Amino acid sequence: MLQTTVIPNRAVSSTATFRDASGRAWVRLRRTLAAGVQAWIARRDERQLMEMPDYLLKDIGIGRSEISSAVRQGRA
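The chain above was modelled as a monomer; its predicted structure follows.
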């Protein structure tokens, strides 16, 4: 007759726990870096648009006061 033994409350190895924790840390780091890059790009684009003359901004379809929201949220 086949007999199975169940080991209750088996602890997870410390290697697996470390791997999970380091994986989560990498995910947080990637998200933080991605947010930083997005903010940098938005500031760069905003600065470039602010340097443009008003007639070019009018051609694009935005006013000088709308530059920040257009860069960060897009045009509606």
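The chain has three helices and no strands.
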